[in-house]
Design a protein that fits this description.
Elements: H1 2-26, E1 30-36, E2 40-42, E3 47-55, E4 61-67, E5 75-77, E6 82-85, E7 90-97, E8 106-116, E9 122-132, E10 137-144, E11 148-150, E12 155-163, E13 173-179, E14 185-192, E15 200-202, E16 208-212, E17 218-227, E18 233-244, E19 251-259, E20 264-273, E21 279-286, E22 294-296, E23 301-305, E24 308-317, E25 326-334, H2 335-357, E26 360-368, E27 371-379, E28 386-396, E29 399-402, E30 411-414, E31 418-428, E32 433-442, E33 450-452, E34 456-460, E35 466-470, E36 474-476
Parallel strand pairs: 2-9, 11-18
Antiparallel strand pairs: 1-3, 3-7, 4-6, 4-8, 5-7, 8-9, 10-12, 12-15, 12-16, 13-14, 13-17, 17-18, 19-20, 20-25, 21-24, 22-25, 23-24, 26-27, 27-32, 28-31, 28-34, 29-32, 30-31, 33-36, 34-35
Amino acid sequence: MVLKSRSSLVVSIIFLVMFLMQPVLAQDPFSVKVLTEKQSVYVGNSVDYVIGVTNNLNEGVDVQIFPTSSYSSWFATQENYTQYISPNGTVNFNARIVPALGTSSGNIVITVSVCKVRSNVCSDTFINMQVIDKSQLKILSFEPESSESPMNAGAKFIFRLENLGESNIISYKLQVDAFDLNGNLVSNRTVDLDKIPTKSLYPRDSDASVLLVFDVIGTYDVYAKIIDSTGGVVQTETSKITITVPPEVKTEIIDKNTVPGILFEKTTYFIQNMNSKVNSVTVTHPVFLVPFIYSFSEAPEIVEIDGVKSFVWVCDLAISGNDGDSCEFSLTANYWVIYLAIIMLFILAGFIYAEIEKPKIKKTHINKGELHSVHISIKNNSSKPLEDVTVTDVLPSVLKLVGEYTVKPTSIIKKHNSVELVWGIGKLKSKEERVLTYNVKPIVEVEGGIDLPAVEIKAVNARGKHEKVMSKSIVLS
């Protein structure tokens, strides 16, 4: 009885020890706390963190900290990565994080691991950082290229921008609106601005421009607005433009150049606007051949007038300096396509002719009660006679020959399961036809039909070529 009580006491002590040890076994090797003075940071700026590490192990160890996320290039400690921590001791690591330029706004999570040196004993913590994309775009100048511009010619306005912020410009627009003296909107244009690096001008190598078209003479107020990604107006600059009567337009086809060739022929049209007004010119080229053999630098329209087809291009000539804008079209007639088509037609004609010239053979039958009459029709379709014409038919062993033939076979050869009938016709004149007939009768009763194999005809044509043609097989029902 005492022994049993002692055993129960031992078991109870074991369970109590396991219960008390459970939190220790489940505890992380290190306790990690992160302290910082701010939770948000502008792109390109830094934020400092103090990472406190407490050693929960029963031994002193060397530990390291390092980031395990894709933002490791942002992370730097301000002292040695490795420090010694005594049992239950605590050390602080000073870390600095700098979000790279170009980073979009949002909440960024960086994982920081604390690990025993040369061991996989680690504890993790997380740093939540609010990154703010700080950008500042300014219009440095906005003015017309000329104070006066001809009507419908397009008035060019030059603008220059600078990014004064600490992040690249993304999703900004330049909106340009022109109003008449009564405040009516008469012309406008929106420009999507490219990504502008910090502390830089746009563009870096030359002034950018926007073109407004006015179809009524007069003086207009022009407003340039910077619109940010939220649709808000960042800055507005104003200017003026006077639209005058357009001068006479002179448009000239400078050059039409044709390069002839056997396989192809290339024609090029070059057109230039000789004045400062926007103009449109139509270029017409007659279609001498089927359109599909042509290739183009720019696809034209195909216009048909009075049964005559032409290729038509429209050249929209914008102004460009004193000499005016230009455009160029070219088309190439690929004659090699025609040569290839002719060769293919010759090959096809030869194939058709060869098929037509072959002899024809057909096998049919007529049911006469117990007897079946088999008919073999042959014909020379060629314009020349056929020599050494031979017809061969095979009769299954379940059938026997009965009665007379229209043309008696030259030979009848008995084989294991069949009988072979051979007719040596000899010569067939052009378009000559022959019909070979024989009768058969089943030796035994057969359910269903009896298959009769195809008939073969062999001959030699006028060119000495051996021809061989087979008929279709038939079924005696």
